Amino acid sequence: MVLDSAGRERYRFSGYLPVPDFLAELYMGLAKSAFAHKNWADAERWFHAIVNEFPSTDAAPEALYWQGVSRYKASNDHHLLGQTAQEITQRYPQTSWAKRSSVWLQKAA
User: Fold this and answer.
1) 70 vs 15, which has greater pLDDT?
2) What is the set of domains in the chain, with CATH numbers?
């Protein structure tokens, strides 16, 4: 369980995981805590770290999705969502995160 500085739960996962997956999940908790506090730069940094340091984990496609949302929230530039959707589609085409971001491809066109 990952709690923020006020003691609110921001992320939870359970079970035993290999070290890379475990670390990716911990990073996800830190990223989601930063996101909940509207600290877009820190959230983007943590999500980016998951994608780059643990690209083959189950957390990576979700992190890439939320990295794009964090960039959008910081800039209000909807084109960034389209770029994120393209990257998810290329790197993780069979995931639910590719489906979720597919609407951004239509907006970018």
Assistant:
1) 70
2) 2-108 (1.25.40.10)
